[in-house]
Amino acid sequence: MLFSSITFLYVFLPAVMILYLTVPNKVRNGVLLCASLLFYGWGEPKYILLMVAAIIQLFFFGKLIERYRKTKWSKIFLTTSILCSLLMLGYFKYTDFVIGSINQIAGSDFPLLHIALPIGISFYTFQMISYAVDVYRCEVKAQKSIVKLATYVAMFPQLIAGPIVRYKSIENALENRRNNWEDIAYGCKRFLLGLGKKVLIANQMGELVSLCQSVTTQTISVSWLYGIAFTLQIYYDFSGYSDMAIGLGKMLGFTFPENFQYPLCARSVTDFWRRWHMTLGIFFRDYLYIPLGGNRVKKSRWFLNIFIVWMATGLWHGAAWNFLWWGVYFALFLIIEKTFLLKLLYRSRILSHVYTCLVVIISFIIFNGNGVLDIVDSIQGLVGIGTEGVLSATALYLWSRYAGILVLAILGATSLPKQLAELFVNRYGNCIIGQILQVLFFCLLLLIATAFLVDGSFNPFLYFRF
Amino acid sequence: MDLLIHSYILGFKVPEGVGFMKQKRFLQILVSTIAGFILLLSLLIVVLPYQSVSESERRSLAKFPQLRVDAIGTGSFMEDLEVYLQDHFPFRENFRNLKAIVTYYGMGQKENHEIYLVQDGTKKSAVKIEAAYRKESLQYATDRFAYLYNTYLQNQAKGIYMVAIPDKHYYGAAYSKKPQMDYEKLFQQIEENMPYAKRIPIEDQLTLSHFYTTDSHWRQESLADLSSYLLKEMGKVGGQTYDSYFATDHFKGVYAGQLAIPMQADSIFYLENDILKSLDVYDYETNQEIALYDLEKIKERDPYELFMGGNKSLLRIQNNCAENQDKLVVFRDSFGSSLIPLLCAEYQEIWAVDIRYISPVILKNYINFQDADVLFLYSTSVLNHSETMK
Questions:
Q1: Which of A75, A85, A275, B34 is the most exposed place for a label (fewest CB within 10 A)?
Q2: pTM
Q3: Which residues 6+ apart lie within 8 Å of A312 measured at CB?
Q4: What mean pLDDT is predicted for residues B66-79?
């Protein structure tokens, strides 16, 4: 079930919220867990048992890690739990990638297993690993209630697409939380803003990406349009989903960590990754980079650590070689920046920003590529290799058709909306008109997003003949 | 936008004072309003009467999916339920209008579902973009025509003609700068694939004004000159005159529904003269005589169906006032419904065949093609999407 669907917005969410807010506090985790399992089973009926089995494994290993603390068994149980999670992820996500790669390299012909990837497995396995490690490190106590632990792992707001929530950040809320009007209102507004980002901007950019890919006569302008549109699509899709998740969490009484902080305004790749999918970056920093030694080792080892972390980051995003190259691409730029480029970049705001945008756009072309040749063609198209000129009638049409939404998307990715909102609140925040306008704005946003969702089943015929 | 919420909503405290709501009260109203909208619409999904058809999209709306274990196990029940909820959402047409207005004007895309508006005199005409020339579709269509020629027409038909009716986008693209398929290539391909037929070009005989503003079809009252031109090209005299009769001024055609932006309705007129009034029309689908113009249809879903009863697979028209025994067989799409009556004056027997609804294989049971003039009359949009031809 997607957040941006009629089923979720007008069936699941109202039913769950009414039930959740009316039952006594002590029952709320149970309600949330049942709703989350229903949510997951709705989209992935086959693999609900897999997640339940993973939770049971985590629960028992968590208790064993804590019980045998300060003995070698604690580490053994931790390792076993992590291996269970990684093996599960590895089997479902990477088996066919490994088989396909062996076939490519060795020229063999092993058949692919065509294993369906359970939704959200990349997210909830990482959450499970973080819980087990945090218990081992004595940062949190092992959860005694399997219901509460299951609620943490399976919680529907962040189950499918993050943010990756550390157990310690919601440990207290699992035990004792209260809903208040401020949190519910904040959650509503955050959710609606995320919905607008996803439905009104990300989906439109997705349409544009498809149109660019189907153009028969490639030009430089279409190549750039494709890169920009995909960058904006993935940003608004992902950050919109994070906003919805954070908003839902708030409505339920949880505070999830922020996941994006104007990443497209970054002035270096280093800066970009402190703003983009922050919870993933923090996870890899705390659970892979630092245990490998981080930057507190000799330089060659430091660079190796960066490569390992970024290859893992790339592969986490997808089981294909282009994701690996994507990770390596960023590793190279990070190393270059850390060795000498960062100091140069910060001398010029504009140049550093242009540099970062270029690196990021090219990275997402790699990310979305369908094989090496496709990636090379797309990148070459940016500089005119293999294209038929700069402009074409199709290019002009696409640029003009999507100009409005492109401008909105680019401006929306900056702090400009925030600054305008500040001006508005400073001027009108004290009066009733400002508050009424706020209500109207969010209601209109809900109605327009609903309109776009409803129109999703548009399927016309020329004649009434049925 | 990422930190918008933090500073704007949480970071700004509205001070107490006369003339504005307390913060908590305001938040309660905000949440209640949003929740109220959602709950109301959720309730209306259940309460409102079931609609079976979308008039604007001309299709049946999705039925509630069957609750079966296998459908739940594969997830198809959930997918179908989403489609059902989208199809039966309360005020669906109003929401479609809202989406169209936001897309067309708000986002400045100036099109919705590949349909755009072009100024046509004092009114705006809705036009569908035909951006890509689908060679394989045209090949399929002309292969079916070749089957008809090889099976029925070779050494039998007197004259074989082909008319490709340019769709509205042929004329609209010049004003809109929207991408356009290569029509010249399409026309050239037709001539190459149909060497047995004489193509009669009509592109210069038409303008956007010849078409309804809300529909894909042309207006019959504007076709007198075109019909005369075609008859002359087919070796006839032409030059018939007609009286124009008003049918309805509430015609909102197929594009109006798809575009979903409020448009002024079209008026439908039909042409009559003494010859047209005397024509007998036989419908082989219902095995009965029908009227040339069925005025009851103007009260139904698609008033354009008043012309020859709409989409019929096989019609025979008898002209009892004919001064010869000539026969005309028209292989056609829906554009033919309004043009064919204007070709009848100089033939005794006229056949209207739509091979989207009848298999060419069985035509031998109905039509004798000996010495008949044969006219292939298809719009470029049908030729470019010929999958439904049998």
A1: A75
A2: 0.91
A3: A284, A288, A327
A4: 88
